[in-house]
Predict the structure.
Amino acid sequence: METRHCTSSNEMKRLTTDELRNAFLVESLFAENEVKLTYTHEDRMVFGGALPAGKALKLEEEELKTAFFLERRELGIINIGGSGSVTVDGESYFLDEKDGLYVGKGKKEVLFESANGEKPAKFYLMSTLAHKEYPTAKIGIKEASPVHLGDEKNSNKRTIYKYIHEGGIESCQLMMGMTLLAPNCMWNTMPAHLHDRRSEIYLYFDMQEDTRVFHFMGEPDETRHLVMRNEQAAISPSWSIHSGIGTSNYTFIWGMAGENYSFEDQEPVDMKELK
């Protein structure tokens, strides 16, 4: 498990491009027959990927210093690859592409398996600290309620699917969902906003080999950017905006953790404040 420590907004102002990427960008989340995880001290989130190609993979405790991974944690899973299953303490849940699963605190064994090793599942994982147990629950993308936002005129026509949130699958603090941009639309989360009491992780995917997303971050008057490829993730601290534009349309998974459990805590940033 890789560890990323917190970086303050004042520190970020002095970072080189490489230093910025080392602090906030995770370039590789999936490796064949591995569970790859990153621990960020931003709200103590753990995120990464499981890619089972020919054998089942187990979510191990790694470096959490607990008896098992979910002893004091909860877990969100979204499959972005071929079909597969997640088995939680002996009960299996089948996930097609873009289906999601919530696993509550206290579950001792989580196994990942692909239906077809030649087209393996890619399970994106995000875990946060939990104070009580909520039931494990699956939500398929066909069952998720879509929210349609934006328009082609502003190049931001998109559909948001909320998986784990206050009006859907209940959790302690984890909120998780997916945004699909329409063809010829490349902007997300602009005008920008902040979550002063929540940190966030962005995973960009459904991208071609030669396309890129420019992920904007930083305080509104001191912005920076990360140039990101397919299936890479950005850590977004609570003091940072999080917005992006691609060279083509793309999909991203957003996951949040922190003190608040409501979308209403957004703090809009006026366009004239951005620098």
Q: What stands out?
A: The chain is about 5% helix and 45% strand.
